Amino acid sequence: MWTKQHWIEDHTLDGTAERAAGRGIIERQSLHQEIVSRLRDMIIEGELQPGERLYEIPLGESLGVSRTPLREALKSLASEGLVELAPGRGAVVRQFTRKDVHDMLVLIRSMEELAARLACEVASDEDIRRVRELHDRMRAHYEAGERMEYYKLNQQIHSSLVALADNPHLSAFHATLQARLKRIRFIGHEGPERWAAAMAEHEDIVAALEKRDVERLVEIIGKHLHNAWLRVRDAV
After folding, report:
1. CATH code linked to domain 98-235
2. Is the CB of residue 39 less than 8 Å from the CB of residue 77?
3. Could you tell me which of 42, 46, 58, 97 has the fewest CB atoms within 10 Å of its CB?
């Protein structure tokens, strides 16, 4: 298996490979989910920029993996909407227009408002308690300044809220859009003021859910998703 030292001795890294290598070689060879996770995080954090071509050979070598599992991982990221597989260009980090982002956030807002109404009717107390546990873990990461850990739990909470509606079709459509907006939603937490505002909105969401206060829950989710657009619109 390639090692980072062998790679450095034998090759000159391009920009993409340098950034991947900086995160360390993937050690295990049950690779698929690890490669997907590694590349997804690099896209979310902006290390791989929208429109950037992903060169298979240097990227694979820097991660310590062969081209076959890397290509399978890129196909998975393409199915999530984070990568495009363009004929003649290979894999490219997907780039959305401002209108794309706005339109998807409008749909997510509508879906989460609907899910909130259904959840207040059908969710069990145990289901709601699990959302509270996720929220408390997310708050701990916020207080520790651990942005990526916070973000991943943030996205899990949004998915969990939709899942409380017990409508698998709604959950599936929501998951598709949420996957495409991973980088955009991450940008929405940049800066202490934006991050604090997003955290406060989540506090209100969970409190309203625990009370099954449907009108308040719908209101604060709508506000949260509207503010999500305001927090990212200048960055896209």
Report:
1. 1.20.120.530
2. yes
3. 97
**Looking at 3-7, 16-20, 99-103, 138-142, which range is the least confident one?**
3-7
Q: Residue 141: which residues within 8 A CB-CB, separation 6 or more? A: 147, 149, 150, 153
Buried b (16+ CB within 10 A) or exposed e, 196-234: ebbbebbebbbebbeeeebebbbebbeebbeebbebbee
pLDDT average, residue stretch 149-164: 96
In whole angstroms, give the CA distance from residue 68 to residue 32. 10
Residues 6+ apart with CB under 8 A from 73: 31, 32, 35, 36, 39
Pick the CATH number of 4-93 from 2.60.40.10, 1.10.10.10, 1.10.569.10, 2.120.10.30: 1.10.10.10
